[in-house]
Amino acid sequence: MKEYTDSEIIECLRARQSYVVRFLHDRYLPMIRLMVTRMGGTTEDAMDIFQDGLMIMIEKLDNREFALTCKFKTFLYCVCENLWKTILTKRKAAQNYFLRKIDDDEDDFTEIMDGSLYESIFHGAFETLDPAGRNILKLYWEELPAREIAEELGYSYAYVRKKKCEAQAELIMKIKKHPDYLRIIRHGGLSDVGIPSSSEPDGKQSNMTIGSR
């Protein structure tokens, strides 16, 4: 593989030379993929982040007054990492919203739920949605307008709006039917799903669960 200096990469990107984009893809995508997957993402997420990060880099480089003060590799990594952390924050906010959007007459089970179980219920329900619903919701949570989602996924604007509402409703229904959620609502605590909910007088965690009595 031919190597390029940072200055050569910058000038080639400004000139929109596709061979340099291929070089960057081959050289730096594995680095971005490792970062994203270690932080809970998928290889598809990594590809999206890499492409978005590269577009941001190109936009900055188009400004002739922009001066790169570190290695190109380092700057690209930082841009992609910040993008991914922003997406994770938005997804977490969406997750919290859906897990709390349960019937008002039910107790707020999020107050008595362990964080890992809290996320497990959401992801377990989310992964059972059809691919179109999952993809549309992901992009909504990243705050993309419906028209941009339609263009990116190849759907009509009307379909995206309708599918988003259907997927949201289905997700809430699946959360409410999740076995762990039902057990928590039924018993009002975590002990029946195998997570200690109290401590013994000597300070040791109790291993007893409702299911083992």
What does this structure look like?
This protein has 213 residues and is mainly alpha-helical. The chain has 2 domains: 84 residues, Rna Polymerase Sigma Factor, Chain: A, CATH 1.10.1740; 113 residues, Winged helix-like DNA-binding domain superfamily/Winged helix DNA-binding domain (Arc Repressor Mutant, subunit A), CATH 1.10.10. 65% of the residues lie in helices and 0% in strands. It has 9 helices and no strands. Helix 3 crosses helix 4. The C terminus is likely disordered.
CATH superfamily of the largest domain: Winged helix-like DNA-binding domain superfamily/Winged helix DNA-binding domain
Backbone shape: elongated
Distance between the termini: 64 Å
CATH topology of the largest domain: Arc Repressor Mutant, subunit A
What integer value in Å does the Rg equal?
A: 23 Å
Catalogue the unreliable spans. 102-113, 189-213
What is the class of the largest domain in the CATH system? Mainly Alpha
What's the CATH architecture of the largest domain? Orthogonal Bundle
Work out the helix count.
9
Q: How many structural domains are formed by the residues?
A: 2
Can you lay out the helices and strands and say which pair or pack?
Layout: H1 6-14, H2 18-38, H3 43-61, H4 72-100, H5 115-126, H6 131-141, H7 146-153, H8 157-177, H9 179-187
Helix pairs in contact: 2-3, 2-4, 3-4, 5-8, 6-8, 7-8
